[in-house]
Each structure stands twice: as structure tokens, then as C-alpha cells.
Design a protein that fits this description.
This protein is of the alpha+beta class. It has two domains: 78 residues, Winged helix-like DNA-binding domain superfamily/Winged helix DNA-binding domain (Arc Repressor Mutant, subunit A, Orthogonal Bundle); 42 residues, no CATH class. The protein is built from four helices and six strands. Helix 3 crosses helix 4. The structure holds zinc ion. Zinc ion binds next to strand 5.
Length: 132
């Protein structure tokens, strides 16, 4: 599907900047990235975008459900083009995330949800370190 149509279908006006980002992110491959990673790829593709604009676009993409933001232990936000519910392995040394399919994890016990709240999703992160 044309990325302009993908943006429109998600309720986003297909601005030049959003199309540049959609062309990089919405190519069918699942990946994890930071805004800085993306800004780098934008400049490799021959375009220029300020980090504030990149963040702004990513926020819009996230709110439109085109990408997800992964819970992260660092100050840097990590985004995910796999917007289906899933979990992650985290390589503690490199920060690399690897997807885990939802049905690979079976949660047998969860605490009672505090009053006034509902469970809006459980993200499991299995931290990896070298066994040596
Ligand atoms: Zn993921």
C-alpha cells in the first residue's frame, strides 16, 4: 500500500516529513529504533530533519497506532514498528531488543488491579546477559 494512503488511513495528513519517515519505517520490516537512529537514516536518505521534528512525527505515528513505544530502562525512548502486542528480550550489554511472540509467554498470575484502573497491557522484558 502507498505510504500516503497508510498515513491517511491512520488519520494523519501526509506531510512531506511524515512521508519521508513512513518510507523508512513502514516498509514491512519490524525494528526497534531511537529518534536519533531515525534522524541518521533520514540524512542517509538525503533528507534533513531536526530531532524535534523527528520526535514530533514519532509521537503522531505512535498516537495513530502506526508504531509503539517500548518501555525502556534508559532515558532514550525506543520505538517499535511491530505494533502487534508482543514482548521482548533485552540484551543488557548492547541494548538490543528482540521480539517475543505474545503466545510464547504465559502469565499465570497477575496482581489485582488497583481500584479505578484497568489493565491496559502487560509488557514482559526478559533481560539477557552473556553466560560466561
Ligand atoms: Zn518489538
Amino acid at each position: 500500500m502507498d505510504n500516503k494512503i497508510k498515513l491517511r488511513n491512520a488519520g494523519l495528513r501526509p506531510t512531506k516529513q511524515r512521508i519521508i519517515i513512513a518510507d523508512i519505517l513502514l516498509n514491512g520490516f519490524n525494528r526497534h529504533f531511537t529518534a536519533e537512529n531515525l534522524q541518521n537514516e533520514i540524512s542517509i536518505s538525503g533528507n534533513k530533519m531536526s530531532i524535534a521534528t523527528v520526535y514530533n512525527c514519532l509521537k503522531k505515528f505512535k498516537n495513530a497506532g502506526l508504531i509503539k513505544q517500548v518501555e525502556s530502562y534508559t532515558d532514550t525512548a525506543i520505538f517499535d514498528t511491530n505494533n502487534v502486542s508482543h514482548h521482548h528480550f533485552l540484551n543488557e550489554e548492547t541494548g538490543e531488543l528482540i521480539d517475543i511472540d505474545n503466545n510464547e509467554i504465559n502469565l499465570i498470575k497477575l496482581p489485582d488491579i488497583p481500584k479505578g484502573f484497568i489493565n491496559s497491557g502487560v509488557d514482559v522484558i526478559i533481560k539477557l546477559k552473556k553466560n560466561n
